[in-house]
Design goal:
The structure is a single chain. This protein has 334 residues and is α/β, with parallel strands linked by helices. It has one domain: TIM Barrel. 38% of the residues lie in helices and 11% in strands. It is built from 12 helices and 10 strands. Strands 9-8-7-6-5-4-3-10 form an 8-stranded parallel beta sheet, with helices on one face. The protein is globular, with a radius of gyration of 19 Å.
């Protein structure tokens, strides 16, 4: 496996990240252990979760899996903080109070002494960036986290944080995690160039457009039960499934057939091959899904393939909403 440098840290990570969002929700503990063990056996060394996934269940399942196999030191372990964890007024957001408390809780749930990458899951524009940075800096100095990163930040917000880090002499964010897939290529406009300019690792989430680019969905309004869009009741997420997404998935079929690959593998291989991308996050529900995801590492797209894909989904465009607004003015209300 060809490992990738994680930004300017000097750390090498696998070219695909095992996303753990399904663990503790649609994936039980035994299957979680099975997927993680298989991933590590195949050379994957980067696991990404978040405290809010399953209300902490994902972190608990990941921690249990690593305790069972004894391979905590073999993985680059990432989690996130920001989401509401209880009805208490301060149990959310990017305040020092919540970041410190959230980190301690994540350490307990995962049964680990430190977190390799601690990420802010969302920006909070009503919290001063120096307040947030000082809390993350203290966690680095204490050894509880090794690196700090962001998720779903706007380019201007990330650059603002670097300016503040330099001015105040604080540890800077070393990575950004945002959506990027063939159904939403808007990150190419300035987000990816920003990451390249500042040697920032970029780990795209939803590279398969929440499953829309796997080829398993039909144009019917009702999808199969058990699938993400078949059971989804969130209108905000249902807008991510559209005829435009289906058009792209259909257009990938002949490319997949030419490579003896699946549509999902072509879509994932395309994201992984883009300049500035460190490693896309694949979030499987089953072991078979993850095995299919790993098959993308064996796909080598040609210039002709890239040209055909650009015709299906022109650079910088989108046919579904993944790159959500980074400022949520009511996020702190309850």
């Amino acid at each position: 496996m060809e490992y990738k440098l994680f930004g300017r840290t000097g750390v090498y990570v696998s070219p695909i990240v095992l996303g753990c969002m399904m663990f503790g929700q649609k994936t039980d503990q035994d299957v979680t252990c099975e997927i993680i063990d298989y991933a590590l056996g195949e050379g994957i060394n980067f696991l990404d979760t978040a405290d809010v996934y399953g209300g902490g269940a994902s972190e608990e399942f990941v921690g249990e899996a690593l305790q069972r196999n004894g391979k905590r030191n073999d993985v680059f372990l990432a989690t996130k903080v920001n989401g509401r964890m209880s009805p208490k007024p301060n149990d959310l957001g990017n305040s020092r109070h919540h970041i410190i408390e959230g980190c301690e809780a994540s350490l307990r749930r995962m049964k680990v002494d430190n977190i390799d990458l601690y990420q802010l899951h969302r920006p909070n524009s009503h919290v001063a960036i120096d307040e947030t940075l000082r809390a993350m800096d203290d966690l680095v100095d204490s050894g509880k986290i090794r690196y700090a990163g962001t998720s779903n930040y706007g380019s201007w917000q990330f650059v603002e944080s670097m300016w503040a880090s330099e001015k105040l002499g604080l540890n800077r964010f070393i990575s950004e995690q945002s959506p990027f897939n063939l159904a939403d290529r808007r990150a190419e406009r300035e987000h990816l160039p920003m990451c390249q300019t500042y040697s920032t690792a970029f780990i795209p989430w939803s590279p398969l457009a929440a499953g829309g680019l796997t080829g398993k969905y039909t144009r019917n309004a009702q999808q199969a039960s058990g699938t993400r869009f078949g059971d989804e009741t969130d209108p905000g997420k249902l807008k991510r499934f559209s005829g435009g997404v289906m058009d792209i998935a259909d257009g990938l079929v002949p490319i997949a057939e030419a490579h003896n690959a699946t549509v999902a593998q072509i879509a994932l291989a395309w994201v992984a091959a883009q300049p500035g991308v460190t490693a896309p996050i694949a979030g499987p529900r089953t072991l078979d899904q993850f095995k299919d995801n790993l098959g993308a590492l064996n796909v080598e797209l040609t210039k002709e393939d890239f040209d055909k894909i650009d015709e299906l989904a022109p650079p910088g465009t989108n046919v579904a909403e993944y790159y959500e607004a980074s400022f949520e003015p009511n996020a702190h209300r309850f």
